[in-house]
Structures are given as C-alpha cells and as structure tokens.
Amino acid sequence: QLQLVESGGGLVQPGGSLRLSCVASGVTLNYYTIGWFRQAPGKEREAVSCITSRGQSTNYADSVKGRFTISRDNAKNTVYLQMNSLKPEDTGVYYCAGVARLFSLCALSEYNYWGQGTQVTVSS
Predict the structure, then answer these.
(1) Per-residue pLDDT at 88
(2) pLDDT value at position 104?
(3) What is the DSSP string of the chain?
(4) Are 10 and 79 contacting, i.e. CB atoms less than 8 angstroms apart?
(5) I need a labelling partner for 119 at 20 to 30 A (CA). Which of 11, 42, 94, 101 fits?
(6) How far apart are CA 1 and CA 70, in angstroms?
(7) How many C-beta neighbours within 10 Å does residue 90 have?
C-alpha cells in the first residue's frame, strides 16, 4: 500500500522560496499519478499541481502558474514541489496524494492515498 510523507515546509517571508518533498514507500511510484493539494485555515482543500506517473504531463492551479514547479524522481520514489515568489495567500497545510493511474484530472476525489501534510507559512 502506498504511503506518503511530506517534508520541507516552514516559515518564509513573502517573495521567498521553499521546496517540498513527498517520499513514497510501500510501492514503486512508477504507476501513480501524484498531486499536491493545500488547505488554508477556514478554507476547503484545493488542488495545487499534479504530475502524471512518468512525468509526461503536469498541471497547475491558476494561482500558482509561473511560480510553482512540480517534478518527480521515480528512482528515488520522490515528488517535489518547488515554490518560488511565495505570497501570504500560499499559506496552508500542503498535502501530497497519490492515485494508481497513469493520468488524472487533478481532482481531490480521484486521490485515495494521502500524506499527513506539511505546514507552509508565508509571512513577514
């Protein structure tokens, strides 16, 4: 069974950068599409970015396009989210999630394996 552990969150000033990592165990990531989702206080969880099983295709929420980059290294069973030009509205708990499909629509309902999340706070 796929298990996911996120790391890399923290406190950063506006305009700063963070790189989140999502390490998988239990199975190989080769057959899983992975997504990053976030939940701000008092708001619903939303999709940030997703990447297909072999990294052929990515998609991003409009709010992060041009600032965030998702990537994966299947040999290391790891997916990354590079976040640049961070804004206070990027604050929230970031979760990685997986689904045993080669592609996905990057919708929450598709994903059935979730990590525990890592807190990202953007504040001066």
Answers:
(1) 97
(2) 82
(3) --EEEEE--EEE-TT--EEEEEEEESS-GGG-EEEEEEE-TTS--EEEEEE-TTSS-EEE-TTTTTTEEEEEEGGGTEEEEEE-S--GGG-EEEEEEEESSS-----GGG--EE---EEEEE--
(4) no
(5) 101
(6) 23
(7) 22
Token pair, residue 122, equals 């953007």
CA distances from 102 to 29, 34, 50, 98, 112 (A): 10, 10, 11, 11, 14
- Per-residue pLDDT of the chain in tens (124 residues, 90 and over written 9): 899 999 999 999 999 999 999 999 988 888 999 999 999 999 999 999 999 999 999 999 999 999 999 999 999 999 999 999 999 999 999 999 999 988 888 999 999 999 999 999 999 9
With helix as H, strand as E and coil as C, how does 91-107 read?
CEEEEEEEECCCCCCCC
Total residue length of the chain: 124
